TrEMBL record:
Organism this protein belongs to: Brugia timori
PANTHER family: EAP30 SUBUNIT OF ELL COMPLEX, VACUOLAR-SORTING PROTEIN SNF8
Domain of life: Eukaryota
A GO cellular-component term linked to this record: ESCRT II complex
Protein name listed in UniProt: Coiled-coil domain-containing protein 36
Gene3D superfamilies in the cross-refs: 6.10.140.180
């Protein structure tokens, strides 16, 4: 007696489509969660970077070597210190 192999036919095609749709939905969900988490981490980092710049603003202004390292660090993580609140902190003069 010949045995019939499963996995062929209309039912198998539909199961495969359903499985692919589930994987697609789960992948989208995970990507969304990761993007949300990354956005939160970036916001925290920017806040901490601004706090650091405020705390060390005199050193950043005075020491060109320190300022260069600070700018390099900002560039390595994709933060432009000239395009955010850091500019205000770094360039503000004490009156």
């Amino acid at each position: 007696m010949a045995t019939r192999r499963r996995g062929v036919g209309v039912g198998a095609v539909q199961q495969k489509k359903d499985l692919q749709a589930k994987f697609q939905a789960k992948g989208s969900e995970l990507a969304s969660e990761q993007l949300n988490q990354f956005s939160q981490e970036l916001a925290i980092f920017q806040t901490k970077l601004e706090e650091f710049a405020h705390k060390h603003r005199d050193e950043i202004r005075r020491n060109s070597h320190f300022r260069r390292h600070f700018q390099d660090m900002c560039a390595s993580v994709g933060v432009d210190p000239l395009a955010c609140k850091l500019t205000e902190l770094l360039l503000r003069t004490n009156n």
